[in-house]
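Would you be willing to look carefully at the protein I have copied below?

:::
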Amino acid sequence: MTFKKHIAIAPAALALVLAGAAQQASAQSLFDVLFGGGRVERMSRGEFPPPPRADRMVRPNASSAPRHRNNAVAAKPIEKITGPVYYTYKADPLAQVDFTALEAAGKTVSLEPSLENNAFREALPGLQDFDLFAEKDIAKALTDYYSANPDFIWVSGATANGRAQDAVRVLGEAESYGLDAADYTVDVPSAGFSMDDMAARQRDLIRFEMTLSARALRYVRDAQNGRVDPNRISGYHDFPAKPLDLVGTLKALAESGDTRAYLESRHPQNAEFRALRAELESLEASAENEIVVDPKLLLKPGGTSPELPKLLKLIQRDHSELIDDKYSEVLARLDNSEVYDKELVPLVEAVQKKLGLKPDGVVGPHTVSKLAGTSKADRIQKVILALEEMRWLPSDLGSPRVFINQPAFTASYIDGDQEKLKMRVIIGRPANQTSFFYDEIEQVDYNPYWGVPQSIIVNEMLPRLRSDPGYLDRSGYEVINSKGKRIPSSSINWGQYGGKVPFSIRQIPSEANALGELKILFPNKHAIYMHDTPQKGLFNRDSRAFSHGCVRLKDPRGMAAAVLDTNLDHVARKLKAGHSSERVSRKIPVYVAYFTAWPDASGKVEYFNDVYDRDTHLKLAIDKVEAARAPKAPETAQAL
C-alpha cells in the first residue's frame, strides 16, 4: 500500500496492547509489539505450505553479517516516505464565449430554412459586444453546437417558449438538490416589447438563448459530476472522470419533450441520494435544536465545562427512564454545575450504554453526537456535502455491493434493497488516512501473506534492521530479492539503503500475521483492501481510526461468505486447508467512501464526526468554485 496500510496502533490503542502484554513488552522493543517481534508460533500441522526448499535459499557469506554491523562506512540517511497530501484547490476559471464563429454560420444559406432558423440568423448581430462567461468546455460547446445548429432552443417567435420556462424553473430549484441557484440564474426577457424596436428584441432573445444554454449545461454538469473535481482536493481522493457530451446535451434539450424530466434525470438516481435530498428539505423546514452542545467537547470525570448543564438537561428530557430516585437527587443538586462530579458518572455511563456507545463515562464527540445531535446548520452542511460527494459515484451503485463508510466505521453488504450484513470496521489513523474511491472485489485470500509496503519498510522497519539485521529472520518475515529468491535478512547491509529498499518483505501466514486469517482484495493503486486483524479489542472503541489505511473487518468470515455467495462453513473449510485464494465470480463494486451524513437501511439519515477533516477541505473547494463563478466587474471580466 502507499504509506498507509495494514497494521497500525495509535497512541491510545498502543496503551491497550502494552497493558495486555506487559511482560512481553518489557523484553521487546516498540517495533516488536507493533510488528510481531519474537518467535512466531505456527498453527496446526498441515495448515500452511512447508518452508521453501533449501536450494531456493541464498546463504550469506560466512563473514558478511559481522561486517554489516561493523562497517566503517556511514549508513545513508533514511529518507522517509510520505503519504498523500491535501492540495490548495484551484477552480476552473471562466472564459469569455467567442461568438465570432457563429458569424460564418449566420451567413450560410440553409436549403430548407425554417422561420426559427431565419429568426436566429437575423438575431446573431445582437451577440456583438455581448460578454458571456462560462467554463471553457461549456463556452466551446456553445459555439460548436450553434455553428452546426443555427436555431433557437429556448425561443419561439418573439418570446421565451415553454421549454425555456420549464428549464428556468428547474434551475431556480437547484437549492433543493444541494446546489447554489445563483450559479444558474438567467434573466428572462419580459413578455411585453415594442414592435417598433425589433432589433432590440432580437438582441435580448439571442442573448437569453445563449445564457440559458450556458447555464443549463453548467447545471447538467454539476448535477452529474458535482461542482468540485474531487481529485484536486487531495491525493486521498481518487475518482475516474465522468465523460459528458456537452454538445449532445444541447441536442437532447432541443429535442426533449420534457425538459424538467431530462434536467432532473442528470442527478444521481438512487435511493441514498433521494433520502439525502428529502433530509435536506426536512431540515430546511425544521426548527433549530433547542439545546446545542459543542460537537468537539471532551469532558472527563472531574473536569469542568459550561456544556455540562446542557447535557444534563438533554439526559433529563430524553432519557428520563434511566433516572431513578438516586439520580433524581443528584441531578437536583448538580443540574447547573459545570463540574463533572463523580456522582454523575454512573448516569452518563448508563446513557452511553443505552446509546450503544462504550460506557466509559468520558463525554467525547461520539457521546455528544448521539446525545445532542448536531446543530441544524451543521446538519444542513453535512447533507449538502454528501449530495456533492454522491455525484462522484456511479448513479447506479450496483447490486450486490459493499459499502464502507469511513466516518461511521462500518461496512455493509447490500443485495437488492436489503442490507444483508453490517459490521464495525477499523480505518486508517489521521496520519495514514484511508482513501476515498471505489473499485470491484476480485479475490479472497485465506491465511494470507502480508506484503509489507515500502513506506513501512523504510519508515518503520529500516531503523531497527540497521542495528539488528537478522530481526526479520527470527520474526516470521521473508525477504525476497529481485530474482524472486528468499535471502536471510541478516545477509543484507541495511545501512546502504536510505530510501527505496530493493527487496520485498512479507510476513508469513500465522496467528500473529497483521492481516489475520483472511483478506478481501479489490486491486487498486492505493493497495487498500479489507482484512482480518489479531487486534480484536479495538473494535470495541467508538472511534476506530487505528490502521495504516486498510480496512479491518470485525466479521471477516461473514464478509467473505457474502461476496463469494457461499456460507460460513465453506470459509471455515478453506481456512483449515491452509493458504489459498478464491476468485469472486460476480461483479461486486466496493465503495471505500467518506460521508458524514448517510442514510441507514431504513432511509433515516445519520450524522458522523469528520474523522479526517475532509468536509472542511470540500467546503473550501466549493467556496473556490463559487468565487470563480461570481459575476465579474466589466473591467475585471475583460482581463480574463
Notes: The two ends are 43 Å apart (CA to CA). Confidence is low (pLDDT under 50) at residues 1-67, 634-640.
